Structure formats: structure tokens, C-alpha cells
Amino acid sequence: CVKDNAKLYRADIRVAMASFEGNALIGYNTIRTFESTPYGQMVVKDAAVIVNNDFHANGDRYIDVNPLTFTDADKIRDNHIYVTITKAVGSAENGIFELRGKDYFCGEPPCEPGNVEVEAVPAFDLSTWTIDRLVLQADAQLTLANRFGFQADYDGDAEVLYVRELILGPNSILDIGANRLYYESLDADSTADIISTPLLGLSLGRN
To answer: CA-CA 20 to 30 A from 4: which of 21, 113, 129, 138?
Structure first.
């Protein structure tokens, strides 16, 4: 737990469980989570500031905030997120990735679900949660989910995912889950697949 007025700079941190609280300042670190790291165990709250860090996450294991109370855009900014997915196709617990971004490319009503190439995705902040690189390793599977309201005006049903670099390994499957994905570049093996299946029966909790 890093709290009060503590400062943590320029460290290489391997996280099993962490909480950044009070007026803690976390900057210019490399922060890593792994498949063994439980979901929801890297919590940011109070007035903690998380800026200019590189997060290397296995799955949806990076900054956890309460979007209803943590709304100051200056507190979490200029971070870089790199996500690797290793869960195998057909495994008992496929990877689930929660969408957090506000759709800046579509107005009201929201656009139809789809994966869309754009010239440039927006920079990382509390309204975009842009991922710098998303990699599905060989035989991995990931499903995008929209269960929680990270953007106040969306009520948890229209957030999107922004990815700068999307890489799909051999025999991997990316299921956009009837959601909307924006990416700058796509490097997909010929055996990889992008599908869209509504996420049913998983609306009440994180996998």
C-alpha cells in the first residue's frame, strides 16, 4: 500500500496486490501484472496521482478505479498500457476485457458494433483509457465486455476500446462482444479471427 504523501518514482514494480491511496504520487515507473494477479487488485483511490507510467498487464489487470468517485482527469494521465492475452481458446476461463472509453468517433445514437481502423486513436486519459498495444498470443482468446459504467453519460452500455497496435497471433480469437473497437494498426496471423458475439450471462461480475 502506497499512501499519505508517499512518492514512488522510476521503479520496476511486479504487482501481486497494490493500493495507491491518499495523496500518493506514482510516476515514471514500469508496473507489471501477471496471470496470477487477481482482478481488481491494483486499486487507485482518494487523491492519488498516477502519471507517466508504463503498465505491462496480463489481461484486464491494470488501473482499478471507482469511476463514480475518481473523476479528476489530472490524477490519471499520460500512462502507457501494454496488454498481453495468454488464455487459451476453449479454456474454462476465457479472457474478459472491460471497455472503458468514451466514443469520440460516433455521436448519438451510438454506432453499430464493429472493429474500425482509424488514422489515430485519442491519447490516454480517464475518458479514453487507450491501450498502446494489445497482443493475443498463439491460441489465445479474448472477449470484450461492457458491464460497468466507466463514462458517466453512458451508463455502462456504450463504452469502446481504443488500441494503437493490435496483434493477433496464430489461431487466436478476438471476440468484440457486439461492442466497438478502434485501432490504428492490425497485425493478424492468417489463422487468427475477429468475431462478434453478444456477451450473455456475464453481466454481474468480472471473470
So the answer is: 129
